[in-house]
Amino acid sequence: MSTRWQTYPTVEEAAGNCCRFILARLEEALSRQKPATIAVSGGSTPKLLFRDMAASGFDWERVHLFWVDERVVPPSNSDSNYRLAEEHFIIPARFPRPNVHRVHGELWPKAAADQYTRDIQEFFSLSGGAFPHFDVIHLGMGVDAHTASLFPGEPLIEDHERIASAVYVEKLKKWRVTLLPGVLAAAKHIAVLTAGSDKAEAVRHILEDPYDPRRFPAQLISHRRDVTWFVDTAAASLVSI
Description:
This protein is of the alpha/beta class and about 240 residues long. The chain has a single domain, classed as Rossmann fold. Helix content is about 30%, strand content about 20%. It has helices spanning about 10-30, 45-55, 80-95, 110-125, 180-185, 200-210; strands at about 5-10, 35-40, 65, 70, 135-140, 165-170, 175-180, 190-195, 225-230. The strands form two sheets. The protein has a six-stranded parallel β-sheet, covered by helices on one side. It has a three-stranded antiparallel β-sheet with strand order 4-7-6. α1 (about 10-30) crosses α2. The longest helix has 21 residues, at about 10-30.
């Protein structure tokens, strides 16, 4: 397995090192004289990452920001992943607004997914069944080992043809829009940030259980190259990393 695991005493240290990793990958992309691209996730832990990114002093002028997944809610809603990033990263970092490519969660689920797909295809100049090659994708992982909005048992886990889709999360009784496995597989680098003792069992499943992403969706990325996990000791407490 070429996946790298980095463990830190605290979630703050894990987030800080994840931030430095992401900025280094963006610098590499910018050094090739082209815009850099990143897709970010939502949740509680990313707040720390976003704050570190905002405080970094990085020049965001040629960086374009996308989302891994989004709740089907207006951008002003407290559940919106866009709003989370806006409050903790976009505004404090003075991120250039023309470079923000959000999911339009205020639309109907399928319409939002279709619009996001078109936006990505247009930005990356894609045709046919081609996938975008994001310079960095930032992911998290839930206590059930879900990643993006790909939850255990979700048929979309086996969809390697489309870019994005609406998905109804039965356990939450809510609609979301998510990037699909083909996009994750096409990314140049993936940084996974997860922390807390409630994630320890999921981390153990990812590392030690047979490959079965229908049960443990985060295994989709666990065996591919250029994936780096940033975890705190609490999340890694049941395994030897």
